[in-house]
Design brief:
By secondary structure, this protein is α+β, with helices and mostly antiparallel strands. The chain is built from 6 helices and 5 strands. The chain has helices at residues 30-33, 47-57, 77-84, 87-90, 112-121, 142-154, and strands spanning 40-42, 61-65, 71-76, 126-130, 136-141.
């Protein structure tokens, strides 16, 4: 499946992507903003198991990996909410059958401005970063990315 991004105006409001509309280039990449991801879950784990980890670890998201260990997406409390309303359903439903954030994912060499713009368009707060083979390297968070771009624009 191919995802087509909408056509963008030549100038974006500065509030959407700091520094992007002015043409200033900081040279920052996703690798510069990447953070380690601490919690992961296999895609064949159940919704109930994911909820236990989310609650026990006090985190808002888990990274999902497939049977080969590659990144399969990201699951959040909000995406599990419909399944948690029916307790019998949570015991049998694997994470791979839920509506969770799936690829395409960011890669380390992607320019930070492009990553910021993509996160805005796709409304992503957190975006997994993978290597060329699809293995998880870390995550980027929209607030951190935009903060780094603002700081770079001030230089």
């Amino acid at each position: 499946m191919t995802t087509t991004l909408p056509l963008l105006p030549e100038r974006l409001p500065e509030s959407l992507s700091p520094g992007l509309s002015t043409g200033r280039h900081t040279g920052l990449t996703v690798a510069d903003a990447m953070e380690p991801c601490e919690y992961q879950i296999a895609d064949d784990s159940t919704v109930d198991q994911a909820n236990d980890i989310l609650c026990g670890a006090h985190v808002d998201y888990l990274l999902v990996r497939d049977h080969n260990g590659r990144c399969a997406g990201l699951v959040s409390r909000a995406s599990l909410h419909p399944f948690l309303a029916r307790s019998w359903y949570t015991e049998r439903t694997p994470i791979r059958d839920t509506a969770h954030q799936r690829g395409p994912f960011a890669w380390p060499g992607l320019g930070l401005r492009m990553a910021s713009l993509t996160m805005i368009i796709k409304d992503l707060a957190i975006w997994p970063v993978v290597d060329d083979d699809g293995y998880l390297l870390g995550v980027i968070k929209r607030d951190r990315v935009q903060g780094m771009l603002r700081a770079g624009a001030l230089v």
